Amino acid sequence: MREGASSLKFQPGDHPDDYCYLFEGHSGLLTDSERYAWRRSMMLRKIDGVENPRMKSMMERHWLTPDDSISQLLAEGEQPFLARTLRRIIRECSESLNTCPRCGSLCRTSEACLCPHCSHTWFEVRGPHSPGSE
Fold this sequence. Notes:
With 134 residues, this protein is an all-alpha fold. The protein has 2 domains: 1-16 and 98-134, no CATH class; 27-96. The protein has 6 helices and no strands. Helix 2 (32-48) packs antiparallel against helix 3 (53-63). The longest helix is centred in the N-terminal third of the chain and has 17 residues, at 32-48. The radius of gyration is 18 Å and the shape is elongated.
């Protein structure tokens, strides 16, 4: 998190989209177990949408690996898992999160220079060919 972010209007996790941004754009900050649990939750959502019982059974057999530690992470449901993971990342890796320097919101990816919430841009600060966020 950038210097002074604690006094900013938003913090990572204030917006519902932050969970998607975290898992899709900042996945390098996830532990292996969190990554597997995220994949499992996506597979479960896909399987829930299947109406054909034979297809559903086949998907469950081939897509879901029996792993108690991963199931344990999702035991309380997907939302509590997402919230716990985001809290852990904020606690342990906040300096690695790409947040908007103006409002503090979590950006869509680790290299984004456009805030999805206040539309602030900081391309000029980062430079055209600089790797990473600032």
